[in-house]
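Input (structure):
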């Protein structure tokens, strides 16, 4: 997740430069999830690089003063308190992560107070929502999934998910295939405990054993992905006629050797 952080730092630099024409220290609030160590290190390096280079020029002397706070993004109360603290310090904008459980908090604060919130993780905001103060440098990937389904002209998919965000993206899939010319049958199943999915997978395996199954996996973390992929192998669903489409970033971190053949 390092490249979104780099993109963010370059983005806010250009934003500030276009609105300021003299030397100024600009406070920027940065709210990171407790697990975002790589993002923190990348942001600090890019801020240092920006400040060193910007202050060496005579055209635009902009110094970013970062105020970094670490918080559990799933805790809406603590996130709200952190945003309030950042705003009390007079930050120009806020950069941070988000999660399905707290995204509405971010959107509400930024929209009500007209404070830009730059999200380095994927989010579910659409232009039609009417909220214009939060935006992501890591766009939602559900549109790519929809394009793949259309390209290969799939008529049926199985869709496994584990969060409200996955449910929202499922709704996007339904909306995309309203056209009678390309109807899509979706067999959606929500995963409860990712540690115990064997029974759900066995039931899915028994459905039309001879059919070619195209399964979209949309889970909230790489940890959940790996746990369920391991159970898919346990059940033997990495054989012929099983095709998996994994949604989301950081897929390269997964152990997929058991899926290299026959899927």
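Output (sequence):
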């Amino acid at each position: 997740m390092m490249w979104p952080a780099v993109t963010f730092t370059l983005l806010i630099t250009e934003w500030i430069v276009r609105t300021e024409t003299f030397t100024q220290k600009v406070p920027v609030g940065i709210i990171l999830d407790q697990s975002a160590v790589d993002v923190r290190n990348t942001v600090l390096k890019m801020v240092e690089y920006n400040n060193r280079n910007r202050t060496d020029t005579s055209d635009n002397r902009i110094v970013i003063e970062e105020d970094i706070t670490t918080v559990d993004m799933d805790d809406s109360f603590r996130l709200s308190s952190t945003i309030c603290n950042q705003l009390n310090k007079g930050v120009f904008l806020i950069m941070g992560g988000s999660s399905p459980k707290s995204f509405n908090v971010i959107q509400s604060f930024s929209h009500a107070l007209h404070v830009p919130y730059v999200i380095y993780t994927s989010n579910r905001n659409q232009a039609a929502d009417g909220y214009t103060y939060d935006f992501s440098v890591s766009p939602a990937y559900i549109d790519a999934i929809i394009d793949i389904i259309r390209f290969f002209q799939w008529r049926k998919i199985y869709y496994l998910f584990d969060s409200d965000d996955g449910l929202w993206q499922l709704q996007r899939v339904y909306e995309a295939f309203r056209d009678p010319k390309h109807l899509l049958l979706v067999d959606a199943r929500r995963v409860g405990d990712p540690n115990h999915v064997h029974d759900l997978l066995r039931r899915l395996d028994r459905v039309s054993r001879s059919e070619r199954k195209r399964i979209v996996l949309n889970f909230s973390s790489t940890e959940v992905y790996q746990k369920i992929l391991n159970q898919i192998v346990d059940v033997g669903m990495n054989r012929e006629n099983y095709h998996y489409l994994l949604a989301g970033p950081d897929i390269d971190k997964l152990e997929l050797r058991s899926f290299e053949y026959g899927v």
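Notes: The longest strand covers residues 24-33. Residues 9 and 15 are 10 Å apart (CA to CA).
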